[in-house]
Specification:
Heat Shock Protein 90; single chain; histidine kinase; HisK_dim/P_sf; EC 2.7.13.3; membrane; two-component regulatory system
Length: about 475
């Protein structure tokens, strides 16, 4: 059996040349610039998809009309004018000089609608500036060369008339014709028709697209509100095209499944929490009945630590507990957190940037309080001073919790958001730390559509930043 050797594309083939062309840095740069200039929204892109073929089609029609219709009509009109001028020149040359040129001038005016004038012999004017649109100039010059066959000079720049001068042996004949005699001057009608039809088509397209895009925008708003833990609008219903209605229906079904899952998990965790707390309460009662010895005190400390870790585990598994977002005064919530954190042996300052009014956000109040309290508790465990700053920034509100503790190395700041992750350095030597405080805080922030990030404090410690959408 013959083995066919594997072939590689020829370096000079069209595919190779096209590949090298696409990979050229200049071409790549142009493609990137074009991609950045394109609209990002679906509405604008859909309009562009409709507008581009319309503009191209109108341009092709205009080009074909101008090149064929206008050129043909203008050539015929210019040919007729050139024939009339040639006939007048022939009559003028055959006319006896004793009769004078007045008879032929009257003939040109009355029968041919041409203003004719006999000028003294001399040189023709120098060529004037050519018009930008040279269809008439080119057509009339060609016809005069064909029919007159004498030196001539034309001026087609005027808006109303066209001037033609023909040099004879003993004189110069000057002819003035109206522009409509030599040129199809109905371009404004075509332009008005083209612009009018384009406006009508674009208006219909805009109205149609607006009705088609509106259900998609409402679906996006509903999904965004649900992702931030807010209720979707009550009037939200699957509307629009079939595919959009299917997507909206799938979203509603997904929302119902998630809510059902959260409710079931919350109910289960409530039962587990109740049973475990009952056992821990019995431990505490039994320890209270025993004598106060170092062993009982150590056992009581272990029970307290177990209860604290149990609360963290349940809070992590429970999440926001299905709490509904309601308008909340952020300043009042933070003042309440500062009061609750006064039990810690550290100084806590609250600084809120001045704004026009109170900062009111749709929040799951208890969940967000737990998240910020986790950050404050973490800062109080390792620092002596805590500063809480609040600053609105555009469509976001930024909450910073700074401490003067040992901080967290930059390479470890993402790892601490992993469940049960514990650092080995002094920041995390507390045995009671379950490794879930920051994880719970980030989950709660994300349920509001926000985020939690870590940085370096202005006091040299850790800075925890919660960003919440307005």
């Amino acid at each position: 059996m013959a083995v066919v050797p594997e072939t590689t594309p020829d370096a000079g083939s069209s595919a190779s040349r096209y590949r090298r062309f696409r990979e050229h840095p200049y071409v790549v740069g142009l493609l990137n610039i074009g991609a950045e200039m394109l609209p990002k929204g679906l509405y604008a892109r859909a309009l562009l998809i409709i507008i581009t073929p319309i503009v191209v089609l109108e341009g092709v029609i205009a080009f074909a009309f101008m090149e064929r219709h206008w050129q043909a009509v203008t050539r015929r009109l210019s040919e007729a004018t050139a024939r009339d001028i040639a006939a007048l020149i022939e009559v003028y040359e055959d006319l006896p000089k004793s009769d004078g040129p007045q008879k032929i001038i009257d003939l040109a005016r009355d029968r041919l609608n041409l203003a004719m004038e006999v000028l003294p012999n001399g040189d023709l004017p120098p060529p004037g500036p050519k018009p930008f649109f040279r269809l008439l100039d080119r057509a009339l010059s060609n016809e005069l060369r064909k029919h007159v066959q004498l030196p001539f000079w034309i001026n087609t720049v005027g808006d109303q008339n066209v001037e033609i001068r023909v040099k004879l042996d003993d004189a110069i004949l000057r002819f003035v014709a109206t522009r409509s005699q030599t040129y199809a001057s109905n371009s404004h009608i075509f332009l008005l028709w083209m612009v009018g039809s384009s406006v009508i088509l674009l208006t219909v397209a805009i109205l149609f697209l607006r009705n088609q895009i509106r259900p998609i925008l409402r679906l996006a708003d509903a999904a965004d509100a649900f992702g931030k833990g807010r209720g979707i609008p009550e009037d939200f219903r699957p509307r629009g095209a079939r595919e959009v209605r299917q997507a909206a229906l799938a979203f509603l079904q997904m929302r119902d499944r998630i809510k059902q899952h959260v409710e079931q998990r919350t109910t289960m965790l409530a039962g587990v929490s109740h049973d475990l707390r009952t056992v821990l309460t019995r431990f505490k009662l039994e320890l209270a009945l025993l004598d106060d010895t170092p062993e009982t005190r150590a056992l009581s400390s272990d029970v307290d630590e177990m209860q604290h870790m149990l609360e963290d585990y349940l809070a992590f598994a429970k999440g926001d507990g299905g709490e509904e977002a309601k308008p909340t005064n952020l300043k009042e919530l933070l003042e309440e957190i500062v009061d609750d954190a006064s039990i810690y042996a550290c100084t806590i300052d609250l600084k809120i940037r001045k704004s026009k009014g109170d900062i009111i956000l749709p929040l799951k109040r208890q969940a967000l309080k737990r998240a910020i309290m986790n950050l404050v508790t973490n800062a109080a465990r390792f620092g002596d001073r805590i500063i809480i700053r609040v600053a609105p920034e555009g469509r976001w509100v930024r909450i910073e919790v700074d401490d003067d503790g040992p901080g967290i190395p930059e390479e470890e700041r993402e790892n601490v958001f992993r469940p049960f992750y514990r650092l080995d350095h002094a920041r995390n030597q507390d045995e009671g730390n379950s490794g879930l405080g920051l994880v719970i805080a980030r989950d709660i922030a994300k349920s509001h559509g926000g985020e939690v990030a870590l940085g370096e404090s202005s006091m040299g410690g850790l800075r925890a930043i919660i960003s919440l959408p307005k």
